Amino acid sequence: MKSKFALKLTNMAHTLGRSNRALLMAATLGVTLVAAPLAQAQAPVKIGFVSTERILRDSQPARAAQAKIDSEFKRRDDELQSLSEKLRSEAQKFDKDAPALSEADRIKRQRQLADLDSDLQRKRREFQEDFNRRRNEEFSSIVDKADAAIQKIADTQGYDLIIQDAVTVSPRVDITDEVLKALGG
After folding, report:
1. Are 69 and 135 in contact (CB under 8 A)?
2. What is the mean pLDDT of each run of 10 residues along the chain (185 residues)?
3. Are 165 and 53 within 8 A, CB to CB?
4. Same domain, residue pair 31 and 52
5. Which of helix, strand or coil describes residue 27?
6. What is the reported pLDDT for 9?
7. Where residue 79 sits, what CATH number does that domain have?
8. Radius of gyration of the chain (CA)
9. Exposure on the CB side of residue 142, measured as CA atoms within 13 A
10. What Cα–Cα distance (Å) separates residue 15 from each residue in 1, 27, 42?
11. N or C terminus: which one in the chain shows less Cβ crowding within 10 Å?
């Protein structure tokens, strides 16, 4: 089909005068430039989807990292629970004893409870910050491994585009299970 088209253009060029040849060549070039991207756009695009949430929740490295973090922070979490229980029991004891206490003793115990509550809140904040920092450290290496696995799958299976975290996804483009297998879980 292209050879017939080119032949017709050549015949038209011969029949036209020299001044019109330049115009015809420009038109041919323009048609070629427009037609080439259209031919490429008709090639099928292979798209995949990966659920980052599932990777960070269900992969073997993620489960191992979560268990490691939980064991590292268990002692501090138990201390916070103990401190919280102490505050609760002290507050209940204060509520029960408050009517019989003198004004000075009541104010003193209220300050002690407020100090204990402030200490508990500070320790909870520190715990949460340390926990989040440690979790981010562990999970950043998992994200790097997952990215490498996704890239390998894309290269070997010829994906043009792999999307993470979409609003809606057809199961036929979801390659999360393949990435989980590549990560060992």
Report:
1. yes
2. 49 50 46 53 84 93 94 95 94 88 89 94 96 94 94 94 88 93 85
3. yes
4. no
5. helix
6. 44
7. 3.30.910.20
8. 35
9. 26
10. 21, 16, 35
11. N
What is the identity of the amino acid at 185? G
| C-alpha to C-alpha distance for 143 and 59, rounded to whole angstroms | 11
* Residue 38 confidence (pLDDT): 54
Which structural domain, as residue segments, surrounds residue 102?
47-182
CA 43 to chain centre: 29
Closest CA to 183 of 63, 47, 69, 46: 63
The owner of tokens 């297998």 is 181
Residue whose tokens read 């979801």: 174
Helix or strand holding residue 81 (H, E): helix 60-97
Amino acid identity of residue 42, one-letter, is Q
Residue 168: count other Cβ atoms within 10 Å of its Cβ: 5
Q: Clarify whether residues 16 and 36 are in a common domain.
A: yes
Report d(CA 168, CA 185) in Å as an integer.
24
Q: Are residues 106 and 59 in the same domain?
A: yes
The letter for the amino acid at 64 is A
What pairs with residue 163 in β-bridges? 49
Cα–Cα distance, 93 to 99 (Å, whole number): 11
Asked if residue 170 and residue 137 are part of one domain, the reply reads: yes
137 and 104 belong to one structural domain: yes
Helix (H) or strand (E) holding 128: helix 103-157
**Structure tokens, 157:** 């299976």
